[in-house]
What does this fold into?
Amino acid sequence: MSARINPNVVYLPTRAIQSAARRFSTPFFIYEESRIRANCERFRNTFRRYFPNFTPLFAVKANTNPALLRLIFSEGFGADASSEAEAWITRRLGATGMYTGNYTTEAEFRFVLKTGHFRFNLDDISMLPTLRKIGVPKFLSFRVNPGISQGGMKSLFLAGPDAKFGVPARDVVKAYRQAQALGVRRFGIHAMTGSNVLDERYFAAVADKLLAIAGEVKKATGIDFECLNVGGGFGVPYRPEQPCLNLDQVARGIRRIFDRQCVRYGLREPVLMAEPGRLIMADTGWLVGRVHVVKHSSKTFVGIDAGMNDLPRPAIYDAYHHVTVVGKPPHGRKEPVNVVGRLCENNDQFAKDRRLPVIAIGDLIAIHNAGAHAYAMGHNYNNRPRSTEVLITRSGALKKIRRAETIRDLFQTTP
It folds into this structure.
């Protein structure tokens, strides 16, 4: 019996893509506004059924296009910012949120503190001397390493002994004591332990660990936490046979943990926060390229005008992305091909040995789940300019939200 196909993975706005390809040069990214808003509403409302004061933050690192950030912020999300630039664009758009830097410089701390738009979430106790030097905020949170992790692949495990992130468990009480001594009076606690997790039980396990740690901190210091941030990591299916994450099951599981652990440790219930990025944006965007070369060698290589500079995930992680030949029926004769880009690296391959409808020069190729960690992770290797971004508005209109870079752009910063 064949596996059930997940419609969220294979969905494609075919007519809009074909229309966009007549107006804009390939390659380009295209996003669907109605899908973005639906994902925001589903995430926000699911958690608020169980946590009325739930505060969602969008992981800006997933997609930093200002037009898309405006949509997400208008849906009641704040920002999860992890760099000076992410803090800058958040402030520019009038949003607020939480700043979680990593091995942060003093200059970046000063910039973020000056904005006044962010709650500080420190990655380690070693950053406290810098705060003492530049100014101690009224609120402070620590990212803790609770020792558990999960992810879609090993490189997405963000906690445990080999992770560079978070305060180790042995130092958590000391960290909050030192923050109290500096004059901090309001506190949060945070963990971000894995990425692209599709196991609903995992998020309750993270909340369980965090509340147990919060209980230890309260016993030692008297601190009652204002908020508890379970981080991101909410996964999406990349393969057609994978199921979607059941958000209601996730939220109910966390609710049960809160009810039990807050009573057990005598905690005043903190406001629940979370930082989805991939779950909000991944399945709302596609990278579209046109076939320019079909090479019959030891394999058939289909060369498109997009490359790993546009979407690095397959090159970095050997990640799977669903591929569609736009406008061709998925049934009928197929052949195994490698879909590749133009960069001078052999890992510039979007799909390997993928059975696709017979492809000809001029065909459009759409790469799915390109709404998150795609353009945002892009680069200019081989001096390839980055691509146009287009939005399908709720009315169905096509709106350019970022022009393609030019070769001149690549050398603007040289004297």
Q: What stands out?
A: The chain has two domains: 7-30+282-410, 51-274. DSSP finds 13 helices and 18 strands in the chain. Confidence is low (pLDDT under 50) at residues 149-160.
